[in-house]
Hints:
The complex is a heterodimer.
Chain A: H1 2-5, H2 23-26, H3 29-32, H4 40-64, H5 66-96, H6 103-113, H7 116-132, H8 151-156, H9 162-193, H10 197-224, H11 237-262, H12 272-303, H13 306-314, H14 320-338, H15 342-346, H16 348-370, H17 389-412, H18 424-428
Helix pairs in contact in A: 4-5, 4-17, 5-6, 5-7, 5-9, 5-10, 5-11, 5-16, 5-17, 6-11, 7-9, 9-10, 10-11, 11-12, 11-16, 12-14, 14-16
Chain B: H1 6-14, H2 50-63, H3 69-93, H4 108-132, H5 142-163, H6 189-231, H7 241-251, H8 259-292, H9 304-330, H10 340-370, H11 374-385, H12 389-401, H13 409-412, H14 415-441, H15 457-480, H16 486-491
Helix pairs in contact in B: 3-15, 4-5, 4-8, 4-9, 4-14, 5-6, 5-15, 6-7, 6-8, 8-9, 9-10, 9-14, 10-12, 11-12, 12-14
Amino acid sequence: MSHAAVAGHGDHHGHDAHHGPDPRVLLSRENIYLPEGAGKGVSTILLGVGAVCIALTVAGAVVHGPKHALASYLVGVMAVMAMSLGAMFFVMSQHLINAGWSVTIRRQAENIMSLLPFAVALLIPYLIAQLLLPDDMKLIQWMRSDMKGDYLLQKKAPYLNEPFFVIRSLLYIGVWLYLCQRLWSHSVTQDRTGDRTETVKARRMCTWGMFAFALSVAFASFDWLMSLDFRFFSTMWPVYIFAGCAFSSVALMAIVIAVLRTMGRLTGVVTQEHSHDLGKLMFSFSVFWAYIAFSQYFLIWYSNIPEETAYYLHRREGGWEVLSALLCFGHFVVPFLILMLRKVKQSSLALAGVGLWMLLMHVLDVFWIVRPMVYASAPADTSASGVAVWLDIVAISGIVAIYAGLLIRKVASGVLIPLNDPRQDEALAHKNYV
Amino acid sequence: MTTLHPDEANARRLAGLKAGALIGNPDTGDGTLIDDPAVRAPLVLGGMSFNDVTETVCGYAERGPGKWWLPATLMAASVASLIGLMVGYLIITGVGVWGLTNQVDWAWDITNFVFWIGIGHAGTLISAILCLLKQKWRTAVNRSAEAMTIFAVICAGIFPGIHVGRVWMAWMLFPIPNYNYIWPNFRSPLLWDVFAVSTYATVSALFWYMGMIPDLATLRDRADRRLREAKAGGPAALKGDGIRAFAYGLLSIGWRFSGRHWHRYEAAYLILAGISTPLVLSVHSIVSFDFATSILPGWHTTIFPPYFVAGAIFGGFAMVLFLLIPARELFPGMKNLLTLRHLENMAKILLLTGSMVGFAYAMEFFIAWYGANDYEKEVFINRATGPYWWAYWTMISCNVISPQLFWFRRFRQSPLVIFIVSVFVTIGMWFERFVIIVSSLHRAFLPGEWHMFHPTLVDILTFVGSCGLFLTLFLLFTRFLPMFAIAELKAVMPESSPHHHGDSHGKGAH
């Protein structure tokens, strides 16, 4: 559209002192680095809290059985892994479409993405526990030996068997760590060398990378989440999980950016214009999640086929119906209405507030997927949702706290924006309205 | 093109580059194919001034696109007359003239409906979603893609109307009180379709028309000026300028190019873009509900809504390319407005959406097996190896395999290759709907109910007629309405930047 279209002519901006702030001031060291040792105290506290919570989770495993503790732990791991995967998607998509405006916020997405190895490191003990624990402690039903005679499971056995499961899990992890490492290294190499071909190399790898990402996330979502109930199936499942990844990662980016701007960093580098666009992405991913979640629920409800409806029926009783309703409103209606307001999107602080809410909803969404499975084999137990909530809280907050602590260290450890990106001028001059 | 566009030279200077240090050769093609991340390729070529843009675009509507136009339109119109004949025959005789059987009671009618409604989606994507995403290259194609949307929806709208059997009862689709106390079934997605498609048609038509108002006013003013100059003894006016001044004057509803008008126009445009975006998703999602809410194996799968939307955008972009690549050759000066870069961008969208559709095919197949429902699995195996195997593999090779050519720069930068692939994709997307509808229906649970579908001549000619109708409407559009959004084109030219210091200011906008 014409008024907006004029805005992007970055090549006409920024270098003329009459028309905008001097890039030398914007890119001064004080503006694009955190001071030495910033956030160290907070991050140490968070890591300490996290360690205590994980210890309590282990204690909880003794009291309430490892099955419950593993489920709570999995919720935490999947929630933070989704944020990192979503951030990786953000970085790749921005490279692919050669986006200019997002260059100055890209490093924060890269920081979030680079915590993927941490999420993987947390997942591996869970997977090993699933494989090694005795039957009654296993969260993944199909791994139990007393289930192996199940008619449906026998049909699915060529896919749902332990060796293949391990191979696939390793494959996804390998693909993600490789993509993550490559994207990070292209970006920081350019910081150092200023070589513009790094941008082109990153774009090139994102072409096939996006395909590898889509397939690996899809099958990982089947293996680690959908197959918790091996009877259930839905072709929409990977899209639903992906929607959660995209949703949570932009929310976390908004929080990180607000903190940095509150600390007096990125002045004139990440402006209200960037917040505005990030807010639009938060809005659209919230709507996207609702679209996917509704379509999946609606088609299963309407057709009313038993293998499919069991999944939702289980979440409509025993207290889960409250959480289901909360997700409809909290995951969609609340951000949808608040983010309609331009003033909210343009304020990094308000956006961070919405972001915190969105992250809470994201965690609850994963919780809603995983946690009902713990007592799924005993549907008569209608109070299942209320059992040992403290264990859920400590396990999830433990992982989130460690994740946050590591993210703070990561953000503080380097420059806050990519240096020498060829599209930097465009990002600095970014405006929504001219 | 050997001389550098000012935009490009400027970008090189700012990036501190010597000419040779550009990534990608600016001298290939028309100079828009530079791969350098520091350079935004120019969107209007040939050193056109604002006035040149106005002259070129208005020229199509005033002097016609060329001598080929009349014969081409007459030919398309005679093909279009087939749909009138066939629908007339159908109404007189009954749906027995189609190849439907007891088992396959939906076939070409609904295939054609979904095919055409999908074609329309690219227009809305370009005009609404790409507008919200501030993709400036959309300005070269948005107007014609929006026009295409309207015409595709017109073609689509015919089929549900005529497939009901007693066409004269079609008004009962609407909840209008009547003597028989018959109300439509509000729980049926087929009814939601009626509302979704009519809302979509209304909003798309509004969006298209509203966007055209300034350009219609330009055409009005030009005709009016010529008439007055002729009266004052200047050069003779063009033939038909009197009608032009009147008709365009009526359509431009008092537009005077005032700042206040533009201000409201832009606000309205943004709002309509915001409304159209969820609409475009809802329409094809609801079309997919027609199938997916059932319990028929092959139809019931949860990924249908986004998969149908991706497929619609895919098929729609193929149609945009199918129409505009020949137009680019035939219309004088259009290559300056619709560059190779535009085509390459759209080729990339074909690759992306084609692969998304391929992803959905793969997920369907996997879950058909993983779901451990024997009927579901058999339907999918039957699709690939049963009597309709040729339709299935036509679909796979056209939709999933053919766009993979665009991994290679050579192919996605060649208009000929893009054109050929867009033909394949158009064919493939028609077959996709045919496969979903017919191959799922022709095998029921009991072998006694197994029937093949054989299209009759009436089936075939109705579809051919709808293609003729679509082409006729599009050709009429190119002759009488502004084919590009003139103001939007100018806004993406470097001269429109407030900081533009070049000497290439236009000789006056109008």
